[in-house]
Amino acid sequence: MKKNKIRWLPKPQKHDYPAAESYLSLVMRPREARALIGRMKRARVAEFAAKDIFRASELPMLRSTDGHVERYRALIILKEPLSPLLLWRDPAHRKLLIADGYHRLCAVYTFDEDAMIPCQIA
Question: For the range 73-77, what are the long-range contacts, defined as Cβ-Cβ under 8 Å and sequence gap of 24 or more?
């Protein structure tokens, strides 16, 4: 079966950073979250395999019937570019947090678990 070619934007969209900051403010102090977002904005985009991001984050795969996952699956089929993920290496818990892009990751994984996903990681 032919795999869908997943297209990516060169960098995260501006609205991705406030979404990531909102999430991170739940797991750390807001001031720390703002500083972390600043580091993410300056980070180079790196690529990681979808399956490795899942393993490092220890998150479950959302079903393709999830509304947000369905929307990103439709964008992939329409060959619309997706925004790179925003990630944080949590040294205290030795795992990866997906600050923004969990639904995109799940959508991509349904097409290709080996897909290389661009990310900004701090």
Answer: 73/107, 73/110, 73/111, 75/107, 76/4, 76/6, 76/107, 76/108, 76/111, 77/4
Decide if 86 contacts 100 (C-beta within 8 A): yes
Topology (CATH level 3) of domain 16-121: 3.90.1530
Do you know the residue count of the chain?
122
Contact by Cβ (8 Å): 9, 80: no
The pTM of the full predicted model, rounded to 2 decimals, is 0.93
Q: Residue 64 corresponds to which tokens in the numbers above?
A: 């393709």
Q: Are 54 and 115 in contact (CB under 8 A)?
A: no
| 98 strand-pairing partners | 87
Closest CA to 92 of 10, 12, 6, 32: 32
**What average pLDDT does the segment 37-53 reach?**
97
